[in-house]
Amino acid sequence: MRREVVERAAALRSILQKNSAWAEDNRRLHNDSIEALATAGLFRLRHPKRYGGYEADTRTLAEVATELGRGDGAAAWVTSVYWIPAWMASMFPDAVQDEVFATPDVRVCGTLSPTAMAAPVDGGIVVNGKWGFISGAQHAHWQEVIAILAPPDGQPYPVVALVPMTDLLVVDDWQTSGMRGTGSVSTVAKDLFVPRERVLPLTEVLRGNSASALSAASPIYRVPLLPVASASSVGTLLGLGRAAKDAFLKRLPNRKITYTGYDSQREAPLTHLQVADATQKLDAAEFHAHRLASLVDTKGAEDVGWTLTERVRARADLGAVARLVKESVDVLASASGGSSIYADVPIQRIQRDVQAVNLHALMNPNTNNELYGRVLCGLEPDTLYI
């Protein structure tokens, strides 16, 4: 199955590349790209098999997103983002899943940030708040939201809830320098009632404790959320790195180095060093990505507990991929000359997209390294997100 869906993803590169400039200008994916991704079945990789999904392992996700990222980083990112909330939806009671996955190729967007408040009421909760960076919201059917629930007789705690997009206000505020095509707008809930069955404690989902009798038997649904989210995210970065290398090498034969004796940039020893350096950084990024995916898949298949070190190393591997890909792309971008700043030269967009990803709170290399080093030094982690 892996080879087949990876080949389908690779076959989409041309249409994603064709639509990438439109996506950047319009700050959302083109409908044709969404339709192509849906037709290829790529939104269903993390859907339960009983609803026509694939229940694909994370190595498959990494390889599929890599191929998509070679076509358009925004398309790869949105597809990857849909995988994570879809996995979270599969942790809900089976009756809730029946409702969510009733829509063919259902797309669930979401966040991990608790930027809303919730109050208990008869039959459920009422949510008020706003969530930012909701990638793919314009093409989604449901959103997974996080809120702080304040019970009248206990301590507040974070909950995750599933909400139809029709219940939310979408705010078109995505004016950014990178990842513009992802349409990562904000959404707002105002006095929104959510039935009790569509609400779970976030801590249980973070631990990978399923409320579903049917999903609990599958290897992909019995691992903690953060390693799953980390492993689901690395492919986009690898794809962007490969896209930068593809773009650089495509322009190379017809480029000279201005104000030097080199009529062809390809002949300059400096170019050889730069291409080798960038490629080795990509190779190292691929090692961390595949080590992370293998860890998640192996632990899920064996159904064994995670050590604290393994959980924080998952985030460290994600951060390493982000850092190494950025370093690789920066080398190639700096070697691309003044003409590369034109909007129709892909490497400038790729560099901005990679920079944006490195600033993401979950992807940030420094944050993830600090967490990893803290635990390696014998201290407790200072976050729930492990």
Protein described:
There is one protein chain. The protein has twelve helices and eight strands. By secondary structure, it is an alpha+beta fold. It folds into three domains: 2-105, Acyl-CoA dehydrogenase/oxidase, N-terminal domain (Butyryl-Coa Dehydrogenase, subunit A, domain 1); 108-200, Beta Barrel (Butyryl-CoA Dehydrogenase, subunit A, domain 2), CATH 2.40.110; 223-376, Butyryl-CoA Dehydrogenase, subunit A, domain 3, CATH 1.20.140.10. Strands 1, 2, 3, 4, 5, 6, 7 and 8 form an eight-stranded mixed β-sheet that branches. Helix 9 (269-302) runs antiparallel to helix 10 (308-334).
Break the fold down into its secondary structure elements and pairings.
Blueprint: H1 2-11, H2 13-26, H3 31-39, H4 58-71, H5 73-89, H6 94-100, E1 108-110, E2 116-121, E3 124-134, E4 142-149, E5 157-164, E6 169-171, E7 185-195, E8 199-201, H7 202-207, H8 225-251, H9 269-302, H10 308-334, H11 346-358, H12 365-376
Parallel strand pairs: 1-4, 2-4
Antiparallel strand pairs: 2-3, 3-7, 4-5, 5-8, 6-7
Helix pairs in contact: 1-4, 2-4, 4-5, 4-8, 5-8, 8-9, 8-10, 8-11, 9-10, 10-11, 10-12
